Amino acid sequence: MTHTLNRRGLSEDRTHDEIVILCMAQQKQKTQKQEALKEITRTILKYKPDNIMSAPLGANEEAIIAMSVGAGIITAVFNNNEDVRNVVAEIKSKKLGVSMVLSGLFEDVRGICAANNMQEHTYHISLGIFGRTDKLPDDKTMEITTQCGHALISPHLVNDIVKKIKKGKMTGAEGARLLIKPCVCGVGNPKRIETILDEMAKSE
Amino acid sequence: MYIDKDLCQSCLDCLPVCPMGAIMLKDKEVIIDYEMCVECGVCRRFRICPEDAIKQVEEIPYPRIIRAVFSDPLVTHESTGIGGRGTEEMKTNDVTNNFTLGKIGFSVELGRPGVGAYLSDLDKVARKVTSMGVIFAEENPVIPLIADRKTGALRPEILKEKVLSAIVEFLVPEEDALDFIDELKKFMNEELETVATMSVISRADQNGDSEFLKKLKDHGETPYPNGKVNIGMAIV
Ligand code: SF4
Ligand code: SF4
């Protein structure tokens, strides 16, 4: 999720938008933080995220917990700020000593921190895209493809799915499920992708 | 990656799943263009082929294996000298304190989104930032690819390899950071054959604000309204 910060299509006039949560044990502490990771992943799962690491590979809750412990990391997407607030509160109260990064609108993160009596520690800020920007797909397509930090969502697949939705051969929700599949970190947001696909199908 | 001609029924289902557009119909045959393919593994992971005709060779040779290491999050390989996939950058900064007040972390990611990058472009960026005297993040997987630390030049045999993305990470004193951004933007817009995202890491001040974010806006930058924030959860 290194580059969830480069997600496009989030806007300051639409706060309470999606938030990606990442919890990571520092490399040297990975072994001693196994129980903590288990606890964190269970807490996140309790609040039913819209997507979570390794779910696109078909992993069930037990496998998700095992993978997060093995990798020393867990990532998940929420479309509900209130849930994130509660996840943060619960994890904070357990004093597990594992880092947490929230990726979303800075304003939303501020609200979540304030509600939990916490403060931002370090910012990662995107300045945009440079170089041969003429080679980029259109903006709407990028709102979907930039949801995978490893750039594994194909812009060609987005176009293909939009065509199928227009012809009534597929729904936006089915298209979204397909598009989040290659993103193994589970940071693709199926709800937002569905909305974007439906917008694209209507406007083209 | 390649397609087994004997198994393929030319249903064309796999064509759109490739982020590089490397799967195509050529002379009535579905093929994977060897040059365009970055070995990201998406086509196989999708399990889209009803005939299981999308195959991987037993062992991708060096230097081509570099493509997989930088494009497939599930691949690491010892022949490259690259141990992990990336650094923890600011994700664990509440433990490591690698990014302190007065220093700005930079990430320049080539090839993303959706374009891919030849390592010849990575070579250009590594040389450029080396000439500007930055401090590289040593755990970054790009570091073992640099053959000459004085110039930033990469191993010559890898320059024609194409990857989905590669990130260069380094530190710059805060007082130099804005000039650095200007120079690097100009360089990227003029010299690169691909796209690159540029992002900066800044330690929050005592109120949880980022002074540097304000400076960026005053400088005329238009940073995204969204980004990543380490919220200090590890400090108990
Ligand atoms: S490995 Fe990746 S780049 Fe190569 S054909 Fe498959 S999806 Fe395309
Ligand atoms: S999905 Fe399989 S059978 Fe269909 S074109 Fe691709 S390789 Fe051939």
Q: Which two chains have the most extensive interface, and how many residues on each?
A: A-B, 75 and 76 residues
pLDDT < 50 stretches of chain A? none
Major sheet size, sense and barrel closure of chain A:
4 strands, antiparallel
Arithmetic mean pLDDT of chain B: 91
The helix/strand order of chain A is EHEHEHEHEHHHH
- Provide the residue-averaged pLDDT of chain A: 91
List bound small molecules: iron/sulfur cluster
* Strands in their spatial order, largest beta sheet of chain A: 2-3-1-4
Assign an overall shape of chain A: globular
Q: Structural class from helices and strands of chain B?
A: alpha+beta
Structural class of chain A: alpha+beta
Uncertain runs of chain B: none
- Number of separate strands of chain B: 13
Short description:
The complex is a heterodimer of chains A (204) and B (236). By secondary structure, chain A is α+β, with helices and mostly antiparallel strands. Helices cover 43% and strands 15% of the residues of chain A.
Structure overview:
The complex is a heterodimer of chains A (204) and B (236). Chain A has helices at 34-46, 61-71, 81-93, 106-115, 139-145, 155-166, 172-179, 190-203, and strands at residues 19-24, 51-52, 73-78, 99-105, 122-131. Chain A is 43% helix and 15% strand. Chain A starts with 18 loop residues before the first strand and ends with a helix. In chain A, helix 3 (81-93) crosses helix 4 and helix 6 packs across helix 8 (190-203). The model of chain A has no long low-confidence stretch (mean pLDDT 91). Chain A contains 8 helices and 5 strands, in the order E-H-E-H-E-H-E-H-E-H-H-H-H. Chain A has a 4-stranded antiparallel β-sheet with strand order 2-3-1-4. Chain A has 204 residues and is an alpha+beta fold. Chain B is of the alpha+beta class and 236 residues long. Chain B has 6 helices and 13 strands. In chain B, a hairpin with a 2-residue loop joins strand 2 and strand 3. In chain B, helix 4 packs antiparallel against helix 5. Chain B has helices at residues 42-45, 65-71, 93-96, 119-131, 174-191, 211-218, and strands at 2-3, 23-26, 29-32, 54-55, 103-110, 117-118, 135-136, 146-148, 153-154, 162-163, 166-173, 195-203, 226-230. A 4-stranded antiparallel β-sheet of chain B has the order 7-11-5-12, covered by helices on one side. Chain B has a two-stranded antiparallel ribbon with strand order 1-4. Classes of the chains: A alpha+beta (204), B alpha+beta (236). At the A-B interface, strand 1, helix 3, strand 4, helix 4 and strand 5 of A face helix 3, strand 5, helix 5, strand 12 and helix 6 of B. The complex binds iron/sulfur cluster (2 copies).
